[in-house]
Each structure stands twice: as C-alpha cells, then as structure tokens.
Write a structure and sequence with these properties.
By secondary structure, the protein is α+β, with helices and mostly antiparallel strands. It has helices at residues 6-24, 37-40, 141-153; strands spanning 42-49, 58-67, 73-81, 88-95, 99-101, 106-107, 109-113, 119-123, 130-134, 162-163.
C-alpha cells in the first residue's frame, strides 16, 4: 500500500484547524507529515487517553485497523468493562483517510508517530480528545515522557491523561 500523500493530510488540516485553534487561542495542531497505511494498520493498545463518555468503564482498550479493497479501513475497537476479565465491549466502524464515518464524522489526527510505528498519538485541534497508542500493552517510561512533553508543547492539558490498564503477558 502506498504512503498517504502529505498533500491530502495538509488539505484536511488546513480546512479544519483555523476556526478551532483561533477560537480557542490554541497553537495550530501539528500532525505528522506522512503516514504509511500499510505500516499503520494492525492492532494498537491504548496506553493513555483523555477520558471520554463513550469509553466509560473501559479497560484493556485496543483498536484494530484492517485495510479494505475499496481504500477504506475497517475499525474494531474493543475494551473490557470495569475489569481486565470483565465482559467485552465492541465498536465496529469504517474509516477513510482523515475522517471516520458511519454513523458520525470525527477527526482522527495523527500528531505523533514512532519511527518504527511502535507508538502513535491521536488528537483533535480542540485538544478535547487524545489517545496514546502502542503496539504493545506497555510503554517505556522515557518514551511516554517524551510524548507527554511534545503534547504539552502542542497545547494539551496532559494532566488530564489517564493511563489505561492493560493485561500483562501479551
């Protein structure tokens, strides 16, 4: 699969950032310059996130992205309710470059990405949404601290981050 064209991402960013960042007096949210979907797809573990009502009582959260022949991506979000061994909650959807759809739209901005795609940080220009994802259920403390530092520089209130409990031994 070819890498995403930086122009597509730049156009989407330019279309969405101006009003939100100016209205909230935030610096423009910087995204990664390019994402290779072939390397990005697969399973991600949620390492930390800003709490969201749609993830209430979730632990052991993961997201799995699978490419489709039509260029979109199947998305499967999973979590365990209230405990690592609690009942599983699933949310399925489809994504396309820049926006999620069906039943609603939302921006999915990759704002930090490990050189080997070992972590990804997903946010929104309003700074109300934030997820730190990793390919493993745990993350090195220095890597996490570096991500948090870069997020602070981008205007995120990093004290709102909540670490996600993940099962050990995966």
């Amino acid at each position: 699969m070819k890498p995403l064209l930086p122009l597509l991402l730049a156009l989407a960013v330019a279309a969405c950032t101006t009003s939100t960042t100016q209205r909230l007096h935030l610096p423009e949210l910087r995204t990664v310059a390019q994402v290779d979907l072939g390397r990005y797809v697969g399973q991600w573990y949620e390492i930390a996130a800003f709490p969201q009502s749609f993830q209430r009582d979730c632990t052991a959260s993961t997201a799995t992205y699978t490419p489709r022949a039509d260029g979109t991506i199947d998305v499967l979000n999973r979590c365990r309710l209230k405990a690592i061994d609690g009942p599983e909650k699933l949310a399925q959807g489809r994504a396309r470059v820049v926006s999620f759809f069906r039943p609603f739209w939302g921006d999915y901005w990759i704002i930090d990405l490990g050189a080997d795609y070992e972590y990804a940080v997903v946010g929104h220009p309003s700074r109300d949404y934030l997820w730190i994802l990793g390919r493993a259920p745990t993350m090195d403390a220095q890597v996490f601290a570096g991500i948090v530092s870069r997020l602070t520089a981008q205007g995120y209130e990093t004290q709102r981050l909540v670490r996600t409990t993940q099962p050990l031994g995966h």
